[in-house]
Amino acid sequence: MLKPTSLRQALAAAIPDLRDHPDRLRLTTESGRIVSTLAATLSFEAQYQLQLIVSPFTGELEEVVVPLLAWLRVNQPDLMPVNPEQPGGFSWQLATAADGTPQLTILIPLTERALVSQQGETLHATWVPEPPEPAAVTRPVELWMKDELVSRQPTSGS
Prior knowledge:
Layout: H1 3-14, H2 16-20, E1 25-28, E2 32-36, E3 44-54, H3 61-75, E4 91-96, E5 102-119, E6 122-128, E7 142-145, E8 148-152
Antiparallel strand pairs: 1-3, 2-3, 3-5, 4-5, 5-6, 7-8
Helix pairs in contact: 1-3
Pfam family, one: P2_Phage_GpR
Organism: Siccibacter colletis
Protein name: Phage tail protein
């Protein structure tokens, strides 16, 4: 899977303490779910919860959350829905570990796609990054039917 390594790199690049002390960041996945269809290939999606632990954690929550959100925007955009009524987000907890060390735990639901192709009698599986965001769509301002103007939206200059 690609996302845990990518997230580790992004957080280390954005948070000097994690860059200088990489052992303070633990990323684990204990279980997940594989979803596939009866399509022509054996491609599948892995759905899992990534546990991110920063320990000891002596900083402010936003020091981790802001770079995490920047990473999610590109790598798991469905956790940042346009409509606030849609589910999204992730959970976090500030607690004290068994050894008395303060720690931040963040649980992030992630998905990753693996493309499986067959070349002769051999199967090849490759993890792929998220598809790029769609290009910005400009809305038309006029509707024409049978060569006649039906309606026109006012423009900001009108």
